[in-house]
Amino acid sequence: MPGARLSQQDRRTIATGLAEGLDYAAIARRIARPTSTVTREIGRNGGPAHYRAEAAQRATSRRARRRPGAARTAGGAAMADGRDPAAIAEFAGRFADLLVHLGLPRMVARVLSCLYVTDSGSLTAADLVQRLGVSPASVSKAVGYLEAQELIRRDRDEHSRRESYLIDSDVWYRSMLASAQRNALLAEFARDGANLLGPATPAGERLDTAAGFLQDIGTDLVRAVEQRRRASGPG
């Protein structure tokens, strides 16, 4: 019943799913609810690292007894600027789901979406572990992938020697240039294969066509991002 309230058993299933490391979409399928419902439920009741079924049930009961317009509990309190943490958590979950749909690994998508909805755009590995409720090893693997794709960069505090992972305004510029470089490498490799097999052979012609396509795409991509960067001006 998508429109009905979550039951205590639903909340126990959510807690079990989190303990098993399932993503929000998989947990939602277990209780036959929209992913947004699960995201909102977890976000307003401590987040993935601190969600407890019994505590969430009690908090929901307390909210239900309050008069209309009363302040929310700490788990769902509005931020100082009026933003709703639960709505932000829901957006981050949907953003991660979209990134997975576009081909990113689940943990990589969760880390990236978490960084994007953080005002500073910067979090330490410990921050990510706490916010996502996952192991340090999972975070380390995800940030390694994102660094390789140049979607984030590493920043070290000289005083505390703590490392943080940062998204800045140049992230997509650097990522697109990295993509163009990968296309250039693929084009060069395909061209070598075409020369080896012979451009007049079917296999050689196929590789030669691929090389030309990849080279043209890489050139167009670099031209487009440079043009966009110039149009945007400094910063």
Automatic annotation (TrEMBL):
Residues 60-69 have a biased composition (Basic residues). SUPFAM superfamilies: Winged helix' DNA-binding domain. Pfam families: HTH_38, MarR_2. GO terms for biological process: transposition. Residues 97-197 form the HTH marR-type domain. GO terms for molecular function: DNA-binding transcription factor activity; transposase activity. Residues 57-78 are annotated as: Disordered. Coiled coil: none annotated. One of its GO terms (cellular component) is cytosol. PANTHER family: TRANSPOSASE (PTHR10948), TRANSPOSASE INSI FOR INSERTION SEQUENCE ELEMENT IS30A-RELATED (PTHR10948:SF23). This is Helix-turn-helix protein. The lineage of its organism: Bacteria, Bacillati, Actinomycetota, Actinomycetes, Kitasatosporales.
